[in-house]
UniProtKB/TrEMBL annotation:
<keyword id="KW-0131">Cell cycle</keyword>
<keyword id="KW-0802">TPR repeat</keyword>
<dbReference type="GO" id="GO:0005654">
    <property type="term" value="C:nucleoplasm"/>
</dbReference>
<dbReference type="Pfam" id="PF10345">
    <property type="entry name" value="Cohesin_load"/>
</dbReference>
<keyword id="KW-0132">Cell division</keyword>
<dbReference type="GO" id="GO:0051301">
    <property type="term" value="P:cell division"/>
</dbReference>
<dbReference type="GO" id="GO:0007064">
    <property type="term" value="P:mitotic sister chromatid cohesion"/>
</dbReference>
<comment type="similarity">
    <text>Belongs to the SCC4/mau-2 family.</text>
</comment>
<keyword id="KW-0498">Mitosis</keyword>
<dbReference type="InterPro" id="IPR019440">
    <property type="entry name" value="MAU2"/>
</dbReference>
<comment type="function">
    <text>Required for association of the cohesin complex with chromatin during interphase. Plays a role in sister chromatid cohesion and normal progression through prometaphase.</text>
</comment>
<dbReference type="GO" id="GO:0007059">
    <property type="term" value="P:chromosome segregation"/>
</dbReference>
<feature type="compositionally biased region" description="Pro residues">
    <location>
        <begin position="597"/>
        <end position="612"/>
    </location>
</feature>
<dbReference type="InterPro" id="IPR019734">
    <property type="entry name" value="TPR_rpt"/>
</dbReference>
<keyword id="KW-0159">Chromosome partition</keyword>
<keyword id="KW-0539">Nucleus</keyword>
<dbReference type="InterPro" id="IPR011990">
    <property type="entry name" value="TPR-like_helical_dom_sf"/>
</dbReference>
Length: 612
């Protein structure tokens, strides 16, 4: 009788796999076959595996999440007591924990993963994978110290297990978390340690190149977080060279890279080749935006968005083909693509605002607001919403909607948990107060964002703070003090090629020298300001500089050049007025009134089109 029963459930399992791999897959029949297996009271191993298969298939191909969770829980419960049943046991724990996290119940995920980590110490692959997963959940919950500690455990375990490649992955992942948590003093020794391990790598050359990309991405982000645009250039160049190597047609696929001599314990990649390619585009856009190369930033943004479209379409094909592993890789890939797209749109909007394209900027902000509705989870949406409010504040400032700008910056400050964004919003709010002559509120605000109150690593923000202090002194006709602050900005901006801050400081110094009747010094400031603003391009600085040039040439009695500067000023002014009017006519302009809840319902902007 037992052999007949065995034949029945084995036949049912075979039939279920046939239906799953059919073209097109017959998922309903597959599920029915798997459910029928339980009628024959199969051995505990078969029962546990079948529950896992059902859970994965229900997750991937249906919306019956509750039933999927029940099967996964049964598989995890049954398999814990079976020796040597690692793949089923730990996959059930991993998929179940991921499901709870997706449902906004990470407190249910953590004990499952902790138990699985405890049981998996003999299995290098599963132990490392489960540590990575639990650290990711703690990081998502902003429990960075716990996540960092777990990754530290991973570093030590991988070293003991002779998994050298995975050890460096754990180390670099820990550096990444410390960067996110702004623990800059702790970052440098670990980053140097990782750099030494990568440089002296004696294993697979493919693994070395892959680790180099991860390492250089973190190096570049470390510099860019500080606003050190000049210092980052050698690292960025090396990163771009490494990604070209990895993207070459002769380069093996990710499975070949991570499945090397180290065995299963080395079977990890941080991101796929295609994802790394987009990420390198993104950090290049970030560098171009900070350095003040707006056209370059726009060009790379368009290329990166096209790559994301290719990436998501290929992942959709893979996911629709079906997978017994539950499709977690595809879901993770979609979430990453969403984050990359959002970051690119945010930078695109910022660059458009600098270049004087308010209608274009509003279009990009609206695309980002529309994208919020499809965020992978509530945490991700909450992390990006303050940045959108900050962008809307900058847009409202450029449109002279000062009340709306103030409301947007207050919203960003109230919602944000990121200190750098909080400081950036406050510096811009200070300019709103300056323009409104609200001296008392400005004085209170400036105490919080004075250069000495800002973190030592925040080079760019400190330089910007000196500029705002200079602007404040200029508005109050304290010209010597203003010059002192602006020279500090210039020194810091020139040291790191912060071109936009340099051009703004030069034109303001030119205005100050004009105000104290020093035409020669004014001309010495305004001329390079105009040249730099044209290179960026920054239409607002060009408008300001052309107005000063017009006055300088009038004072010098140079009528021809005065008329030339006047015509230039008129051209910039008319272009900005036309763009201003175009932006006010767009339905998306209503976003400046959005300060709570999800973004208001607006016509979704076409993904490729821009206002002319």
């Amino acid at each position: 009788m037992a052999s007949t029963q065995d034949a029945w459930y084995i036949s049912l399992l075979g039939l279920a796999e046939h239906f799953r791999t059919s073209n097109p897959p017959d998922i309903k029949s597959c599920i029915q076959c798997l459910q029928a297996v339980f009628n024959f009271k199969p051995p505990q191993r078969v029962e546990a595996r079948t529950h896992l298969q059902l859970g994965n298939i229900l997750l991937t191909h249906t919306k019956n999440i509750d039933l999927a969770r029940t099967h996964l829980e049964q598989s995890w419960c049954l398999s814990q007591t079976i020796n040597g049943f690692d793949d089923v046991k730990f996959e059930a724990a991993s998929v179940l924990a991921e499901l709870f996290e997706q449902q906004g119940q990470p407190t249910h995920s953590k004990p499952i993963l902790r138990k699985a980590i405890e049981l998996s110490q003999h299995s290098v692959y599963w132990h490392c994978r489960l540590i990575f997963q639990l650290a990711q959940i703690h990081a998502t919950e902003r429990e960075y110290e716990v996540a960092s500690s777990l990754l530290g455990v991973g570093v030590d375990y991988a070293q003991i297990s002779n998994a050298a490649y995975t050890r460096v992955l754990f180390l670099l992942s820990r550096v990444m978390l410390l960067l996110i948590d702004k623990k800059i003093q702790e970052v440098l020794p670990l980053l140097n340690q990782a750099g030494h391990l990568v440089e002296t790598w004696a294993g697979s050359p493919h693994q070395k190149e892959y680790l180099k990309v991860f390492y250089f991405v973190l190096q570049v982000c470390h510099y860019l977080m500080a606003g050190q645009v000049k210092s980052v250039k050698p690292c960025l160049k090396q990163l771009q060279q490494s990604i070209q190597t990895i993207m070459a047609p002769t380069w093996p696929d990710d499975d070949a890279v991570c499945g090397g001599a180290g065995g299963a314990g080395e079977s990890f990649v941080w991101l796929s080749r295609q994802q790394l390619y987009v990420l390198v585009y993104l950090v290049t856009v970030m560098h171009s935006a900070q350095a003040g190369y707006m056209d370059k930033a726009h060009k790379y943004t368009e290329k990166a968005l096209a790559q994301i479209d290719k990436l998501t379409s290929s992942e959709e094909v893979v996911e629709s083909a079906g997978s017994s592993a539950g499709g977690s890789g595809a879901r993770g890939g979609a979430a990453l693509a969403w984050r990359l797209r959002m970051a690119l749109l945010e930078h695109a909007a910022l660059c458009r605002l600098v270049a004087g394209g308010k209608a274009h900027a509003l279009h990009e902000i609206a695309r980002a607001a529309h994208l919020l509705s499809s965020a992978p989870n509530a945490h991700t949406a909450a992390a990006h919403t303050p940045q959108l409010h900050c962008l809307l504040g900058l847009y409202a400032m450029s449109m002279n909607c000062m009340d709306a700008a103030e409301a947007q910056f207050h919203t960003a400050i109230h919602m944000s948990q990121e200190r750098d964004l909080w400081m950036f919003a406050k510096l811009n709010l200070a300019i709103v107060y300056l323009r409104g002559r609200r001296d008392n509120e400005l004085a209170q605000l400036m105490e919080q964002v004075r250069p000495e109150a800002l973190p030592a690593y925040a080079h760019g923000l400190r330089a910007a703070s000196y500029y705002v202090l200079g602007l404040q002194a200029f508005f109050q006709a304290r010209y010597n003090e203003a010059k002192r602050y602006l020279r500090e900005t210039l020194k810091m901006a020139n040291a790191e090629d912060l071109n936009r801050l340099t051009s703004c400081s030069l034109v303001l110094l030119g205005h100050i020298f004009l105000s104290i009747n020093n035409s020669r010094e004014s001309m010495n400031m305004v001329t390079p300001a105009m040249q730099l603003a044209s290179k960026i391009p920054d239409v607002h600085v060009q408008l300001w500089a052309s107005a000063i040039l017009k006055d300088l040439y009038r004072l010098a009695g140079d009528t021809d050049r005065e008329n030339e500067a006047y015509q230039m000023h008129c051209n910039f002014s008319q272009a900005l007025l036309k763009d201003h009017f175009q932006a006010t006519q767009m339905p998306q302009h209503a976003l400046v009134q959005w300060t709570s809840g999800p973004p208001p319902a607006l016509p979704p902007p076409p993904p490729g089109s821009l206002p002319s």
